[in-house]
Design brief:
This protein has 113 residues and is mainly α. 72% of the residues lie in helices and 0% in strands. It is built from 4 helices and no strands. The longest helix is centred in the middle third of the chain and has 37 residues, at 40-76.
Amino acid sequence: ADAELRILGERLRELQADVLERQRATQSIVRDDAPAPAEAIAAVEQTREQNDAIREADREDHLLAEIDRALAKLDNGRYGTSELSGAPIGFDRLRAVPWARLTAEEEEAAARR
């Protein structure tokens, strides 16, 4: 169990680093203060790219929050248990979704509702 937690903790930290790197790249697009191009088409494309970057930044913020939450649970000994029932979340599920809050069965039941 300790080896599995170590593997999952390393995976969470790698994912955290990846998300932070993508956020830095996305923020450079969002904060592009360059003057708008003379042609309207180029200006529209720039706005579209910035809007896409903002949406991506929102997704990355959410993912980073999930990873940070999982790392906090790892630190306090609650990692790998369902936040709904307290049941253990299987290693295979955590390997696939290291920030999982529910067992696969609970997640499927929630999706059906």
